[in-house]
Amino acid sequence: NRVPTRAFLNGIHRFWPAKEWRDVLGTFDELQASVQRHPSLDVDLRVFGNGLGFEISPDAPIVAALRKGYRQVVGQELPLVGALSVSDVNIIVREAGIPAVAHGTGSTTAHADLEWVDVANIVRTTKVFLATIVNYLGVERR
Description:
By secondary structure, this protein is mainly α. 39% of the residues lie in helices and 0% in strands. It contains 4 helices and no strands.
């Protein structure tokens, strides 16, 4: 019989915009300190930053343009929600300082073994994006 001498743990920790990166690192430092008690246990912690949370004003023009576009296409109000996900929007807002929003086809099969999106949702989302662009740029329809 053999007893493993090494273990590897990999995971994702997502957090809301109110948390700063130093706070996240502090949380992991506390966790590491709490488990590294046994003299023969050596914990090597490596934390890589990715997708820090972001928040923009609900009154931002891009938010209004998206909500109007959604209403025009779908005929319903688009609720304002937050999400613990990572995309390029995180970088665009936090690093470039450009107000942006995340909207898509839905996430019911996202990252599943069989990941797919039906054509109707692709068409709907495309129409919402196009209406959002028109609304955001203030282009008049003729």
